[in-house]
From TrEMBL:
SUPFAM superfamilies named among the record's database cross-references: beta and beta-prime subunits of DNA dependent RNA-polymerase
UniProt-recorded name of the protein: RNA polymerase Rpb2 domain-containing protein
Source organism: Eiseniibacteriota bacterium
Length: 44
C-alpha cells in the first residue's frame, strides 16, 4: 500500500515515491463504466 511505501522510504532515507491515482477514483471509474459510460483520461 502507499503508506507502507512512504514508511519504507522514510526509514531508508530515500525520496518518497511519486503519488498516483487514489484507489477511490479507480472505483468511481469502474462504477461509471458499469453504467456504460466511457471514461477517458488526459495527462495534465
Amino acid at each position: 500500500s502507499g503508506r507502507s511505501r512512504i514508511y519504507e522510504a522514510i526509514v531508508k532515507g530515500e525520496n518518497p515515491p511519486e503519488p498516483g491515482v487514489p484507489e477511490s477514483f479507480n472505483v468511481l471509474v469502474k462504477e461509471l463504466q458499469s453504467l456504460c459510460l466511457e471514461v477517458q483520461f488526459e495527462e495534465a
